[in-house]
Amino acid sequence: MEQYEVTFAGFGGQGIMTAGQLLAYSGIKEGKQVAWMPSYGPEMRGGTAYCTVVISDKRIGSPVVTNPKCICVFNRPSFDKFGPIVKPGGLFIVNSSLINVVSDRKDFTQFLVPGNEMALMAGNAKATNVVILGAFVGASNVVKLETVTETLKEKLGKKKDMLELNLRVLKEGYDLALETLGQKDSV
Amino acid sequence: MKGNEAIAEAAIRAGAEGYFCYPITPQSEVAEYLTKRMPEVGGVFLQGESEVAVGNMLFGAASTGKRVFTTSSSPGISLMQESISYMAGAHLPAVLVNIMRGGPGLGGILPAQSDYFQAVKGGGHGDYRLLVLAPSTVQEAVDLMMLSFDLADKYRNPVMMIGDGMIGQMMEAVEFPEEKEIKRNNPDESDWAVNGAKDRKPRIIKSLFLDPHQLEDNSWLLDDKYEQMKREEVRYELYKVNAKNKLLIVSYGTMARICQTVIDELESEGISVGLFRPITLYPYPMKELKKEAVKKNIKTVLTVEMSTAQMLEDVERSILGKKQIEFFGRTGGIVPTPDEVKSKVLELIKPKKKAKTSEKKKRGKNVK
Hints:
CATH superfamily of chain A: Pyruvate-ferredoxin oxidoreductase, PFOR, domain III
Oligomer: heterodimer
Structural class of chain B: alpha/beta
Strand content of chain A: 15-25%
Number of domains of chain A: 1
Structural class of chain A: alpha/beta
CATH architecture of the largest domain in chain B: 3-Layer(aba) Sandwich
Radius of gyration of chain A: 15 Å
Largest interface: A-B, 19 and 26 residues
Distance between the termini of chain B: 47 Å
Mean pLDDT of chain B: 93
Order of helices and strands of chain A: EHEEEHEEHHHH
């Protein structure tokens, strides 16, 4: 597998870091090289938060990525900030529940996911990050759905209700990706 | 594991029994992790009232022969310099970690490598050196952290591991070595630790020698240790260094990884560049760097740092004017992107008629 980079971006509190960590743990579980790099700085509540995950079969060089292959944006400020830097030919996942515009770039795949609505329908808007993660996994195939399921079980094993809900929305996000973008073999 | 947590766990695995700290971004997770972990292994976790206090706690605890350490970030490390100098003078083993942020002064909280001089050339007073290690991955931070305790014991000298904020904040997979048997002499049996003078003569640990001859002797004794370090502890890594290289990059820590990405990209475009990454910053791999740098195929040596050129001085000292040496750096918390480094390399390899040098900080030195 070529190196794959994905950035998750949104408000502090939207589970951005967690989404990236779940992906990172899943990558490690599949025996891949992984680097998870958070944005850290003088941030404030309601400010922007983002993290980048690099997954590769080979030794990872820079954990800092100028143009990631995929960016998942959870809110409007992130849409504006990160839309222009997705690598040409890459993937731009937009949480359309909170972002009511679309990018006019034509050189990448834009994938709209109503993350908050899907999570809310399932019973808890806090699971938006897992919806988006599911959609990312479905769209990119960087890790297997089963691996992320395993990771969630490990992390949420004790909280049965939360686990059940998260597994459901993960699958829903994943399925939406397959429906919208079609089945892909690999990245 | 997050770099900061990995560093904390590595210290526990290395048998650390005392941790003294004062919180500061970007390394506070070390303390957070150890509040839970240190009591589990029966060690001491103590948050001091300031970094000055922490430095002195470290001095006191190190005197008992126990494995002790602290972690901090740039301004905090500055406050500890007095104790560091005292510990070196009194031949005490201790490990310090500096997760560097932008400076000088209070600076900022974003990653930087601008404490190179302080760590390598001595931030405190007197004829002393620290053994300085610089990891570039979280795994290496674990390995070097464990090694630091062994080296501190071996030389009875403070050892400092420096990483930039990224090393602390980044999460990567790490493997801890099998529960290693801690190879160290029991401090109770050592001939220097102050751990109760029952049935023996009291010992004194001090760095005060009013008789200048004694002080000179102590300084030469220290110097002997540093000479031994130069012989035995030099560590570095070569990345894609070969006879096709046109240019050699010298870089350390996370910055070196960014350079690796640049080297990989350039390789795919048919341009061969190698990387020399010092792992020990003191003792600096001078001979080894010189050996690689003077090779015929190398036209230019490029030093890349997250500072306004500090390690550059050691690179120049190593190569002694035998090659053209250039510098590229960003500082203040700005991490250079691979693209920036790449365009600097391309500018040097394929020189345009007159490149503008004024736009950004591009300090070029032509050494003849």
